[in-house]
Design goal:
single chain; 13 strands; alpha+beta; 305 residues
Length: 305
């Protein structure tokens, strides 16, 4: 090869290298540009137990379910090539993983990138943020009725007369008998059973609440502690906290405790309200943080538990 041909080939090679490098940079710029769209799921604030402080925790952007037959080695190679990290493998669904995009691209863009791999990927979608909706309840100042209809088994809980959804006597300007007919159900059917376990997926439950503690589920002594491949063993005496991957689902928001009370506040105990079930076992499963937000990923972890 003469000198002129050599210089020509060298120039061509350098051009190809520069074009490839520029194309790679364009891809990175595009991913970074898409990041400028709102990506509120990237960092979530979670409450530290027994503290008013909050910590930041990196949340995965997307879920990807790879098709049957795609090996773990192949999945690792694909995610590494895209500069992504497998945050967790969802044991209950074959091939489903949660992915943390290390380029901080928009979750929709990351999901779309995986969807293009139609031969390898069944579906991909963002790890959506879930927020509690504010309540806009307004009550009148009308006094409660002095006497209530006795349609059945009536508990002695002092705030029961305010529970119009269970027994509507027209209190607070409501409509007489517009309720779920709880009194007759308690009288004729049941007030609940400790054999029934109800999992409450919410912001946790105050398992020490005086009107709930008698009805809180505890892991049976003959059942092993919860063990997850990624997070390890969890001391889950009262349930599970998917926000912090811990065994303490104490409620620091209030919404979950409110819901648990509707389901199963201890009834006819002379305290507070009556739950629809006077006797039941409430299993607290926390996926919503103190701020009132959670993610699809943490909800799935709670369901898996």
């Amino acid at each position: 090869m003469n000198r002129q041909n050599f210089l020509g080939h060298l120039a061509l090679a350098l051009t190809v290298i520069l074009v490839a490098a520029f194309a790679g940079q364009l891809r990175r710029w595009e991913r970074q540009r898409s990041r400028t769209h709102t990506n509120e799921m990237k960092t979530v604030l979670v409450a530290v137990p027994d503290s008013d402080e909050a910590v930041e925790r990196r949340a995965p952007e997307v879920f990807v379910r790879f098709r049957k037959g795609v090996s773990e080695e192949a999945i690792d190679e694909i995610t590494a090539r895209l500069n992504d990290n497998i945050e967790d493998k969802i044991e209950s669904v074959d091939g489903l993983v949660s992915i943390d995009d290390l380029d901080d691209a928009d979750p929709q863009a990351v999901a779309s990138e995986y969807r293009l791999m139609t031969e390898l990927v069944e579906y991909a979608e963002p790890n959506f943020e879930i927020n509690l909706q504010p309540r806009f309840e307004k009550f009148s100042n009308e006094p409660l009725p002095t006497e209530a209809e006795a349609d059945g088994k009536r508990p002695d809980d002092p705030m029961f007369e305010e529970q119009w959804s269970l027994s509507n006597t027209g209190q607070r300007g409501g409509k007489l008998k517009a309720d779920i007919n709880a009194l007759a159900a308690w009288e004729q059917k049941t007030t609940g059973s400790e054999e029934i376990v109800v999992a409450v997926l919410d912001s946790g439950v105050d398992y020490r609440h005086p009107d709930l503690k008698q009805n809180i589920w505890e892991r049976p002594s003959d059942v092993d502690e919860y063990d997850d491949e990624q997070i390890g063993r969890v001391d889950d005496q009262y349930g599970y906290d998917a926000v912090l991957d811990s065994g303490d689902p104490m409620d620091d928001n209030g919404h979950g405790t409110h819901c648990a009370g509707i389901i199963g506040a201890d009834g006819d105990n002379g305290l507070g309200i009556a739950g629809i079930n006077w006797r039941v076992k409430i299993m607290p499963l926390k996926f919503i943080s103190k701020t009132g937000s959670g993610t699809t990923k943490d909800a799935i972890e709670a369901i898996n538990y």
